[in-house]
Design goal:
heterodimer; A: alpha/beta; five-stranded parallel sheet; two-stranded antiparallel ribbon; 12 helices; 7 strands; 10% strand; B: alpha/beta; Rossmann fold; 2 domains; 14 strands; 37% helix; 21% strand; globular
């Protein structure tokens, strides 16, 4: 970690806190009924999300999955516009038409989630190909979970990215379960980076809860892609705090381990304190500032107006209107 | 003017579009050196190179996904799916992505893609190389379906589709690939969402498209010798189709026969018939008649295939019904 400056580590810690605090606020507001639809959170996956956010540029692109609310903010979209989108409000980044699963923002390279999980694996091919044909050196990151590795598109994407040497960073967030099914019980391997090897794509497996390990692996992958060498596959082993909608389903010891001993926030906190990068008071101040900011975003979302009814029929076609009643 | 088959007219359109705009590129199975399964992309690889004329593996979802992603960063992809029957393997990419990108992100992205595909029966292609697929896509807001019937329209509609900002499913009927007519060599466009009155008449309106349009013209010719004057409309765009032209015609003739190569249930013929009943009921002198495929998959043997498909005689008989002559 010698090469990573201490200021960077503190900035990344702060961003990890933004992700967690954002998700906790969402869970609370969801329970109150202020966030419609469904909610999947990225609590427990903050280190890898932050590592990715700090490894790509604003001129790069990314396809967020359903546990990426925090990443959308770290990418540069004002937090209140993401929060308002999740509340289904007019001030949201997609005017309340996308919600948690479809919050895109081209101004920061956010191509939006596709809630048919894994389908955007092939959309990313087109972004990478388009940029390559336009002579750009931009990289496109795809956030993809373990559960989607069974999709045909997942494999079609790896095959074509390798064949066409496309600038794609595959960020495989392996949190162990596709809803309730353990990865290894429904796939030929639980170590998904092994699939990438078959497609001759350089790949690595890292502890996604270890901020510095995740950051280092991602930096290396992005450098490889940016140099024009084609795709790279990083498997981040992690664990999601959110269980099922019906409750916790995983063994108690596993839950205890990830929440108490292998929580990325606590791990990073400990690293900062052990290395004397900052003291307890400084970290507490960061956390309090972050929490206050998130509450500002919640208030903004709460006070924002609902979408104008005309939005329901807007932008179905480019250049043509649809019947309004 | 030059006599061109529909294949040549489509090929000409691609050459013109690619020469004019370097963001236009073609991808699909065997579209490169081979020039496409039906020859529509012939000569493109030699002229524009492998970068803009891309052979793909048999990964239809990746073909459409790549097209959508490239459109999201400003490219103008023309994807080929060899047979329309194979659209099932990329249905999700078309329905849930191509058609929704513009709406769900509230206009921040455009999905300006053209998906060319060969459809239709009549040659013994069997259950997986013969289907008329428009019904599968009728219920997809945001998607446009274009379906030419002549070489002239094929060229003008393909250029218009490539220039259009919406996702367009471009149906090319295999029975029409080899028909010939005079086609201008220069660039021109034919408007999308605008039907054409191919033959004027006053007793009955026959609404059709693609191969069925030609059968309808043949039927109208035979009917003329009986003293029945049939107007024949070629829809050209199947979704959203041109209500105005059809309703205006039905208001004049007072009778309507809708012809479609797909089965009736939930399909294009059902929608056209419903709209005529809703909007032009007071003009109708008799109930709308539909001529469509039977509710079966497409059988291989030609004698069986003929049994389940619409033909000229079935169209004539439907017209007789509207005139209460049956």
């Amino acid at each position: 970690m010698g090469e990573i400056e201490t200021g960077k580590i503190l900035a990344m810690y702060r961003d990890m806190c933004i992700i967690r605090s954002f998700e906790f606020a969402l869970e609370r507001e969801f329970k109150k009924g202020n966030v419609p639809g469904m909610l999947h959170t990225g609590v427990g996956q903050e280190a890898l999300l932050t590592a990715i956010a700090h490894s790509i540029r604003k001129s790069d692109g990314f396809f967020p999955d359903h546990r990426c609310h925090g990443l959308l903010v770290l990418a540069g979209t004002p937090g209140e516009k993401i929060m308002a989108e999740l509340f289904g409000k007019a001030t949201g980044v997609c005017s309340g038409k996308g919600g948690s699963l479809h919050s895109a923002d081209p101004s920061v390279g956010n191509f939006g989630d596709n809630a048919v999980e894994g389908s955007f694996m092939v959309t990313a091919l087109g972004v990478g190909l388009g940029w390559k044909m336009q002579g750009k050196d931009s990289v496109v990151a795809v956030m993809v979970g373990d559960g989607t590795s069974g999709r045909g598109e997942w494999h079609e994407s790896l095959n074509l990215a390798a064949t066409w040497k496309l600038p794609i960073l595959y960020c495989c967030v392996n949190n162990g379960y596709a809803i309730s099914t353990p990865v290894g019980e429904s796939h030929a391997t639980a170590d998904l980076y092994e699939f990438a090897k078959a497609y001759k794509i350089p790949s690595v497996q890292v502890d996604g809860n270890d901020l510095l390990a995740a950051y280092e692996a991602t930096q290396k992958a992005v450098a490889h892609i940016r140099a024009g060498n084609g795709p790279y596959f990083v498997e981040y082993k992690t664990w999601r705090w959110q269980g099922l909608f019906s409750g916790e389903f995983r063994p108690p010891e596993e839950v205890r381990y990830y929440k108490e001993e292998h929580d990325p926030i606590q791990m990073t906190r400990k690293l900062i304190l052990d290395k004397n990068i900052a003291d307890e008071a400084h970290l507490t101040k960061i956390e309090q500032e972050v929490n206050a900011r998130i509450e500002d975003w919640v208030n903004f979302a709460m006070q924002s107006p609902l979408p104008n009814p005309e939005k329901a029929t807007a932008n179905v076609y480019v250049g043509w209107e649809v019947e309004k009643a | 003017m030059k006599k061109m088959t529909m294949v040549q007219a489509l090929n000409d359109a691609l050459h013109i579009a690619m020469e004019e705009n370097e963001r236009v590129f073609v991808l699909g199975e065997d579209v490169g050196k081979m020039g496409g399964d039906f020859g529509v992309t012939r000569g493109l690889y030699e002229k524009f190179g492998a970068e803009r004329v891309r052979d793909t593996p048999l990964s239809e979802a990746a073909i459409i996904g790549t097209a959508v992603g490239a459109a999201m960063v400003g490219m103008r992809p023309v994807a080929e799916i060899m047979f329309a029957d194979f659209l099932t393997t990329c249905y999700d990419q078309i329905v849930n992505n191509a058609a929704k990108v513009h709406y769900m992100f509230d206009g921040q992205f455009k999905s300006s893609i053209v998906i060319r595909t060969a459809c239709g029966a009549g040659f013994g292609g069997g259950p997986h190389h013969s289907q008329s697929v428009e019904g599968w896509f009728m219920n997809v807001p945001g998607l446009v379906i274009v379906a030419p019937s002549t070489p002239y329209d094929a060229k003008g509609l393909l250029i218009a589709s490539i220039e259009n900002d919406n996702p367009i499913l471009f149906l090319e009927h295999k029975a029409l690939y080899r028909i010939k007519e005079d086609v201008p060599e220069e660039k021109y466009t034919v408007p999308i969402r605008k039907a054409k009155i191919g033959r004027e008449g006053k007793d009955v309106t026959i609404v059709a498209s693609m191969w069925m349009y030609h059968l309808a013209l043949n039927a109208a010719e035979d009917l003329a010798s009986e003293g029945i004057s049939a107007e024949v409309i070629d829809l050209r765009t199947l979704r959203p189709w041109d209500h105005e032209t059809v309703l205006e015609s039905v208001a004049r003739t007072g009778r309507a026969v809708v012809v479609n190569e797909a089965p009736k249930i939930g399909g294009l013929s059902a929608d056209i018939s419903a709209v005529i009943s809703e909007e032009a009921f007071s003009f109708l002198k008799s109930p709308v008649q539909r001529v469509a495929a039977l509710d079966t998959p497409i059988p291989f043997s030609l004698i069986l295939e003929k049994l389940i498909l619409p033909d000229k005689e079935k169209i004539i008989s439907a017209v007789h019904k509207t005139l209460k002559k049956a």
